[in-house]
Amino acid sequence: MSSITRDEVAHLARLARLQLPEDELEHYAGQLDAILHAVARVTEVAGEDVPPTSHPLPLVNVTRPDETHRSLTAEEALSGAPAAEDSRFRVPRILGEEA
């Protein structure tokens, strides 16, 4: 006997805004029941001594440590710009914005 009833499948379909034909309700009830049984088997295997994990292998952060370096001054950054104004890059106006 299925633990998911036809009426529950119809209710889920309404919540998901799906229009299911009557003959498919029984079919989906069986499929959802199989999924729930598979999930139940997994929960039986996971004991109290097994911590929840997101990955089966331990992950190690492979990024380099943060180190400070000298950065460009405003004058150095703007030295190669085609146009500059008030220590900023000057770019063409877009979308007809007001100044």
Automatic annotation (TrEMBL):
Belongs to the GatC family. It comes from Motilibacter deserti. InterPro entries: Asp/Glu-ADT_sf_sub_c (IPR036113), GatC (IPR003837). It is an enzyme of class 6 (ligase). NCBIfam families: gatC (TIGR00135). This is Aspartyl/glutamyl-tRNA(Asn/Gln) amidotransferase subunit C. Keywords: ATP-binding, Ligase, Nucleotide-binding, Protein biosynthesis. Its EC number is 6.3.5.-. It comes from the Bacteria. It catalyses: L-aspartyl-tRNA(Asn) + L-glutamine + ATP + H2O = L-asparaginyl-tRNA(Asn) + L-glutamate + ADP + phosphate + 2 H(+); L-glutamyl-tRNA(Gln) + L-glutamine + ATP + H2O = L-glutaminyl-tRNA(Gln) + L-glutamate + ADP + phosphate + H(+). Heterotrimer of A, B and C subunits. Allows the formation of correctly charged Asn-tRNA(Asn) or Gln-tRNA(Gln) through the transamidation of misacylated Asp-tRNA(Asn) or Glu-tRNA(Gln) in organisms which lack either or both of asparaginyl-tRNA or glutaminyl-tRNA synthetases. The reaction takes place in the presence of glutamine and ATP through an activated phospho-Asp-tRNA(Asn) or phospho-Glu-tRNA(Gln).
